[in-house]
């Protein structure tokens, strides 16, 4: 069994090390050691997408053991850059919304919170082009704080909108366990999402 010690590595290095290990020669079993829950989630998700059965053990406070066993599960195809489409074909376009704060605008936080509620509530107006919402920095608080914003995000996710929530940011704000919506992710996935999007909206 191949073992990767990724403790002490910043996001997205644990996922990148895991990817490199698979590219160098797909092992039947792989054990990845990480030192935070966000890295554990990210590595686990990557291995599952790569066709591994995954189990996670936490023998110590700052140690997660992510064990991957190669299975016959079909590997999930990686996202590919979309082919060029006619400008009028809006349903095939991918719009990504990048949110980096839990309020909208500057001047007054209470007003900014209300504006963010209104902004999120207006996103369904984008129709089928609304593809993904990425929450970074203070924006991750929206995925972990009870209120209208969280309710709206849950509704958007249930309607098929992908929501990615930065794991490093959740760790920083001690919100990893409080997250109620979206998929904990890493910067490699964020960069890939930005490159795949036809349009990026940043309020």
Automatic annotation (TrEMBL):
Gene Ontology MF terms: transferase activity
CDD domains in the cross-refs: SirA_like_N (cd03421)
Keywords: Transferase
Residue stretches making up the UPF0033 domain: 2-66
SUPFAM superfamilies assigned to the protein according to its UniProt record, in alphabetical order: DsrEFH-like, SirA-like
Record-linked Gene3D superfamilies: TusA-like domain (3.30.110.40)
Alphabetized InterPro entries for the sequence: DsrEFH-like, Se_metab_YedF, TusA-like, TusA-like_sf
Family recorded in the similarity comment: Belongs to the sulfur carrier protein TusA family.
Listed name of the protein: Sulfurtransferase-like selenium metabolism protein YedF
Native source organism of the sequence: Desulfovibrio piger
